[in-house]
Amino acid sequence: MTADQIKQIISAGLPCEYITLEGDGRHWYATIVSPAFEGLRAIQRHQRVYGTLGSKMQSDEVHALSMKTFTPAEWAAQTAT
């Protein structure tokens, strides 16, 4: 899968204000900003993202996905420095 394909899948299943994805075709690194993360712990946020990928994770089309997840307010604070 390509970075654009994975971004499209995540964006289709989760409202994203910002998303970047880098990787080598099997191992991916994402930064995702979504209002859907409000009130969720990190593991719950990651589960939401994994849920959008569904069978892509299980079938090894996406072998590994490391991510940083932020709410819009957290992202604004992060980028203000």
UniProtKB/TrEMBL annotation:
<protein>
    <submittedName>
        <fullName>BolA family transcriptional regulator</fullName>
    </submittedName>
</protein>
<dbReference type="InterPro" id="IPR002634">
    <property type="entry name" value="BolA"/>
</dbReference>
<comment type="similarity">
    <text>Belongs to the BolA/IbaG family.</text>
</comment>
<dbReference type="Pfam" id="PF01722">
    <property type="entry name" value="BolA"/>
</dbReference>
<dbReference type="InterPro" id="IPR050961">
    <property type="entry name" value="BolA/IbaG_stress_morph_reg"/>
</dbReference>
<dbReference type="InterPro" id="IPR036065">
    <property type="entry name" value="BolA-like_sf"/>
</dbReference>
